[in-house]
UniProtKB/TrEMBL annotation:
Entry EC number(s): 3.1.4.-
Top-level taxon of origin: Bacteria
Enzyme superclass (EC): hydrolase
Segments crossing the lipid bilayer: 7-27, 33-54, 75-97, 149-175, 187-209, 215-233
Naturally occurring in which organism (per UniProt): Streptomyces fildesensis
Region feature Disordered, mapped onto this chain: 431-466
Name of the protein in its database record: HD-GYP domain-containing protein
Keywords, comma-separated and alphabetical: Hydrolase, Membrane, Transmembrane, Transmembrane helix
InterPro entries according to UniProt: Cyclic_di-GMP/3'3'-cGAMP_PDE (IPR052020), HD/PDEase_dom (IPR003607), HD_domain (IPR006674), HD_GYP_dom (IPR037522)
SUPFAM superfamilies named among the record's database cross-references: HD-domain/PDEase-like
Length: 466
């Protein structure tokens, strides 16, 4: 706790105190301890069985479903919502305690993260229990009064969502100085639908438990959803590993070529714009984004002095830099999850008229991913300020793409970017190592893209570099 700002330490202490006060009335001698124990053991088993959230923050210890870890990974909320419906609020607040203290935590200080999670979930479950009771949920559950019972169950789920997300947002604001809108607004909106689903599963569990089927049938209700959450958790971990791999590769290039700072991410973003505009399937869009981000990964194999050279490149130096698509393909050829992205990395400097490199492919011989990335790469390069020239305006860059559509670029991809930018704002950008320059205005004359020896054609000029 010594590493946390004083405001965060005070905030966490207050939440833990409130959680203690919420749970204190459970020890008045009227709590159904057998039900509490069964639910607590069940929740602990689910908590231990699912992987911990990926973020290294106290917010992750709260399993905030609006942030990096998907909802339900590391905390099985249906059990807590069933407890909120079946038990007195103070007793329901205790159900999360054993699982939170025994659950896996990714980073230190583990004791603080476990205590925070127990306090946050205890307060949220207590509030959910009171919300359903205000709407007569206890009476409706005892009489299995459907469909009215759906109302208090939904109220409990929404209250749990609001309280849990609000508490996590407080940690983000006090400990990480996160802007309030990012800490509360977006996470709350993205959490509402999942929590309503958890609330309905918790309602099914509570109804079976109170009905003629008993606790055993209620526990069986959880099995399909638990399996779904476990599979979802594994998929999320795999995707997280993929993103970490891509991040590491991009950082390796950025060390050599400072211009790629931000450029790679923007090319990935523009590639996604084009892909969605042309109706590309969503599973391919993810791979295409990786292609855009990694299109220049081959610069790892290019001497740093050439990448950072301010003066004109000699023909020999250009030929060395023109090897970067092949270097990039060699770097990523063994990374199976990239799929079609590998072809884009190899062919993103090919041209529709066959004047590109490394193989001089024409038209549809060029992979679709490469045709998308070529347009995104050229557009971002033209709208980015560099040490030797000012950025073009967005309209001027799009006009240049139109001029070269059909010769250098695929017209369908150019049209897709133009249509996408009618709905999205794109701000011309200066690279991290560029000194102050005049505001982008009228662009300088086009600079020809490097071409293999012997080819002569007119082309757009996003950069003097390949």
């Amino acid at each position: 706790m010594r590493t946390l700002p004083p405001a965060a330490r005070g905030y966490i202490a207050v939440v833990l105190l409130v959680a203690s006060l919420c749970a204190a009335p459970a020890f008045d001698g009227r709590t159904p301890w057998v039900t509490v124990a069964v639910l607590a053991v069940l929740y602990a088993a689910c908590e231990i069985g699912l992987p911990p959230a990926g973020r290294g923050t106290l917010a992750a210890a709260g399993r905030d479903p609006g942030r990096d870890a998907p909802a339900g990974i590391g905390s099985f909320y249906p059990v807590l919502l069933a407890a909120a419906l079946m038990l007195p609020p103070s007793a329901a607040a205790l159900v999360a305690l054993p699982g939170s203290l025994a659950g896996r935590v990714g980073q230190s200080p583990r004791w603080l993260r476990r205590c925070w999670r127990a306090g946050q979930l205890g307060v949220a479950t207590f509030a959910a229990g009171h919300a359903q009771r205000l709407l007569g949920g206890e009476r409706a559950l005892n009489g299995l009064d459907f469909p009215y019972l759906l109302l208090p169950a939904a109220a409990a789920a929404l209250t749990f969502c609001v309280v849990a997300t609000t508490l996590v947002g407080g940690v983000l604001v006090t400990a990480e100085r996160c802007p309030p809108r990012a800490a509360w607004g977006t996470p709350l909106l993205s959490s509402l639908a999942p929590h309503l689903t958890y609330g309905m599963v918790g309602l099914m569990m509570a109804a079976l438990w109170r009905g003629s089927y008993g606790a055993f049938a209620a526990v069986l209700v959880l099995l399909p959803m638990y399996i779904a959450c476990w599979v979802f958790a594994q998929v999320h971990r795999e995707h997280t590993a993929h993103r970490a791999t891509v991040r590491a590769l991009v950082q390796a290039v950025e060390i050599k070529d400072r211009y790629t700072r931000g450029h790679s991410e923007r090319v990935g973003r523009a590639s996604v714009f084009i892909a969605r505009e042309i109706g590309m399937a969503e599973d391919r869009v993810d791979a295409l984004r990786f292609a855009g981000i990694l299109h220049d990964i081959g610069k790892i194999g290019v001497p740093t002095r050439l990448l950072r050279k301010d003066g004109p490149l000699t023909p020999e130096e250009r030929r060395v830099i023109e090897l970067h698509p092949e270097y990039g393909h060699e770097v990523v050829r063994g990374i199976a999850f990239l799929g079609e992205a590998r072809a884009a990395i190899l062919h993103h400097h090919e041209r529709i008229d066959g004047s590109g490199y490394p193989f001089g492919l024409t038209g549809d011989q060029i992979p679709e991913f490469a045709r998308v990335v070529a347009v995104a790469d050229a557009f971002d390069a033209m709208t980015s300020t560099r040490s030797y020239r000012r950025a073009r305006g967005v309209d001027e860059a799009l006009a240049e793409l139109r001029r070269c559509a059909g010769t250098q670029f695929d017209p369908a991809m150019v049209s897709g970017l133009i249509s996408a930018l009618d709905r999205h704002v794109w701000t011309p950008t200066a690279t991290a190592d560029v000194p102050d320059m005049p505001t982008p205005g009228t662009a300088e004359p086009a600079l020809p893209l490097p071409r293999p020896a012997g080819r002569t054609t007119t082309a757009a000029a996003p950069d003097r570099r390949p």
